[in-house]
């Protein structure tokens, strides 16, 4: 027998021996879940025996998480470096540490500190800080210590142990078999990688992880009555927006776009060919949070907003470069979401009124535009008309870069929350909301919205007239950053689409 073949046979035999040793000789961990009140004393459960209420996240065995047994993303990165590098620049990696989120729940807790204020945060943490919730850290008394995994937002093990989802219930309505996964042990992983892949819920083993149902569990937000009010309040509805769209009819899932390495390219290919592109998976989870990925912001602001530097063996320079790539993908995705068109006369008379119709078409989003936390995320139209001398004769939707305020007469798409006194809530304190209205209804997938403008043409105007329209998007209200974060920083908007045309004067 030749030497290479002999080594191959011997190597294969050793692998088999290691496999059987791992499967039959090494001890298999049993269920590691903990019982609230027994293993975790003084744990408050004001809404019955569900330790995770009023959120909908739960474990398969109903027990709490023993954080000592949970692998961090940094641990997973030992073998999955590519996926880790993608994830660590994503918003999923900072769903908890994100300062905007921490500030919002801090306000909520203060507002309700005398009536289960801390426990109510479990509703938010079902999606934002699932490890914290499952291990019992969201409690009036500090009965469990922090874990390395709690600093990682929606970390690997959360998604990869999900077995069921209830997307219409929302609020983190996932069931995780997180207390019964046996191969966090490095020897078991090395000896039986196929078993590790099966238990870690690769899509080939569990179709749920590749379905919109899975995403909908957190991208549906319904405030339960335990938080406030006599009826549940629907606050985010992205999953059902997708469910009613033609994307769902074509079996295009959330992951097909948002986990594509280049979502804008995916949309372009889909729109141009009409054929569903091949699914290619990246763990960047590209969305719309351009602010927390802009590492060019001054004074390490992005590091502060993300709650600090990332875990793992990655240099600051590498991380910031990854953030900028994430930022580019986000901006490209926003620009692929909508198209603008203008209907206007070819010519107008002096001292008259010209009628313009500006149409926003949702051509690239598989859900409403905008979507998500719409009391903060918003888009608006700017229409500017100048004559041949450069004189501005009409301007609607101007953004004041010094104050962060938008023209109050702008056509804006936002949800206005009000408290019981009728006062507007600008700081994302969802606990206090009693009602909401939309300034303009969001635009469903493959639909459009047309806005008429009446433009007064002064007698001294010189032609031709130039009409510039801009569709802007902004992640958060200025009031939230100014008054909640106490930051002297202007929240910058980004351009989704622009269009320009000329009108002659006759």
Q: Which structural traits does this protein have?
A:
disordered N terminus; about 20% strand; about 30% helix; about 500 residues; Immunoglobulin-like; alpha+beta; six-stranded mixed beta sheet; single chain; 3 domains; three-stranded mixed beta sheet
Report the C-alpha radius of gyration, rounded: 26 Å
Q: What is the helix fraction of residues, given as a range?
A: 25-40%
Strand content: 15-25%
Mean pLDDT: 89
Please give the largest β-sheet.
6 strands, mixed
Care to describe what's here?
The chain is α+β, with helices and mostly antiparallel strands and 506 residues long. The protein folds into three domains: 25-223, no CATH class; 234-336, no CATH class; 338-505, Immunoglobulin-like (Sandwich), CATH 2.60.40. The chain is 29% helix and 20% strand. It is built from 17 helices and 19 strands. The strands form six sheets. Strands 7, 9, 10, 13, 18 and 19 form a six-stranded mixed beta sheet that branches. A three-stranded mixed beta sheet has the order 1-3-2. The chain has a three-stranded antiparallel beta sheet with strand order 6-8-17. Helix 4 packs antiparallel against helix 5 and helix 14 (263-273) packs parallel to helix 16. The radius of gyration is 26 Å and the shape is globular. The N and C termini lie far apart (95 Å).
